[in-house]
Design goal:
Elements lengths: L1 H22 L28 H11 L4 H22 L11 H30 L4 H28 L2 H53 L57
Helix pairs in contact: 3-4, 3-6, 4-5, 5-6
Length: 273
């Protein structure tokens, strides 16, 4: 009987072991190029930000201009100056029929226009090297304002005494200078706004630092020491040499005797008989 039970156990145990192994899934072999415990990376998707086109449009609306655009603007201004100087070489006021007073006034206008153009070119060149300078941008803007009325005066004189079509070209030059000046104005407003913001921030930071310093030094300051209420004693310099008292006498001589004469006695009053 025991032998029969032993044979049954020997037969059934391998079958049970095979059934358990077949119920379990085989483990996947590790990848040859990565570790066995590699985790899959996931991408975190956040809220969509503004597109580059929208950010650029917002910057343009605020008046900000990149240095490259500022340099392109100053180059356009240089071309406008070159065109105007070329037009001025075509003016021949000596051939015009005008009074001496009018000719003298026109010559003064031409001289002032050349000076204004030279000043404008100087400021424009400096602003081209430092496109973030508020001072140079403002001076360029003001220099264009000095050029505009003088070119307009030359345009009217050329149209009246020389050629209408040539006067129209001067008028077009005036419009070009004016448009370029208006293009600089938003940039100046932006730079002024930044300067004002920096000033306000500096003042607020200074006030905050002062408050913190006062709070930190509140318990370290010594109390005032009260003083006795006494009359002060002034110890100044001696009396000046020219100061004399009414009762002063002459100094004594070498023997120690006074050199002053004794005062004369007053005469006795006459006695009544």
């Amino acid at each position: 009987m025991k032998i029969l039970l032993f044979l049954m156990c020997v037969t059934l145990c391998p079958l049970a072991a095979m059934g358990q192994s077949s119920s379990q899934k085989p483990a996947l072999p590790p990848h040859s190029n990565g570790p066995a415990t590699e985790q899959i990376e996931t991408e975190t998707v956040g809220p969509p930000g503004p597109s580059p086109a929208v950010a650029a449009a917002t910057a343009e609306a605020s008046g900000y201009m990149e240095p490259a655009k500022v340099k392109a603007l100053t180059h356009k201004l240089y071309l406008a100056e070159y065109r105007l100087n070329d037009l001025l070489t075509q003016v021949n006021p000596d051939k015009w029929k005008m009074s001496p007073a009018t000719r003298k006034s026109f010559d003064q206008t031409m001289a002032s226009l050349h000076n204004a153009l030279a000043a404008e070119e100087d400021w424009r060149g400096q602003f081209d090297k430092r496109p973030d300078s508020l001072y140079l941008g403002f001076q360029t803007y003001v220099a264009i304002s000095a050029v505009l009325p003088r070119v307009d005066g030359v345009a009217r004189a050329v149209s009246q005494y020389d050629n209408v079509s040539l006067g129209v070209q001067y008028s077009q030059s005036v419009n070009q200078f004016f448009d370029l000046q208006q293009s600089i104005e938003p940039l100046l407003a932006y730079l002024l706004k930044n300067q004002d913001g920096l000033m306000v921030d500096a003042q607020s930071n200074l006030a905050s630092c002062q408050n913190e310093l006062n709070y930190a030094m509140a318990g370290r300051q010594q109390k005032a020491i009260p003083m006795k209420n006494i009359a002060p004693v002034f110890q100044g310099r001696g009396r000046p040499a020219h100061f004399t008292t009414p009762a002063a006498t002459k100094p004594a001589d070498a023997k120690g005797e006074s050199t002053s004469k004794p005062a004369a006695k007053a005469p006795d009053k006459p006695q009544k008989e």
